[in-house]
Design goal:
Blueprint: H1 26-36, H2 39-58, E1 67-68, E2 71-72, H3 78-96
Antiparallel strand pairs: 1-2
Length: about 100
């Protein structure tokens, strides 16, 4: 197998460039393994890990592992306030139109 063309998806074989590979062929598997050893892949992985760590450290909702009440945290503290405003608006609309909230 030749080296993947850098202008294409280096983690896929030539036959599967535009496909979602749920069960990759042998050539796709080999290409994926080759990209894992590439320095750019290691840099992207380290950057994503650092970004995730920063989000967890800055989040007032979740624990040190990034979980909130046993589920992955979304790191959006105002999300709950927006949900409460939406619920209040829905209840007001129901009451205004004769429904029961």
């Amino acid at each position: 197998m030749s080296a993947p063309d850098p202008s294409t998806r280096p983690d896929r074989c030539a036959a599967h460039q535009d496909e979602v590979a749920y069960y990759p062929c042998k050539a796709c598997t080999a290409a994926l393994e080759a990209t894992r050893d590439h320095p750019a892949h290691r840099t992207r992985t380290a950057d994503r890990a650092a970004s995730a760590r920063t989000a967890i450290d800055d989040c007032p909702l979740c624990d040190d592992t990034g979980y909130l009440n046993g589920h992955p945290c979304h790191h959006q503290p105002d999300k709950y306030d927006a949900a409460e405003r939406g619920i209040a608006g829905a209840r007001a609309a129901l009451t205004q139109h004769g429904g029961t909230p």
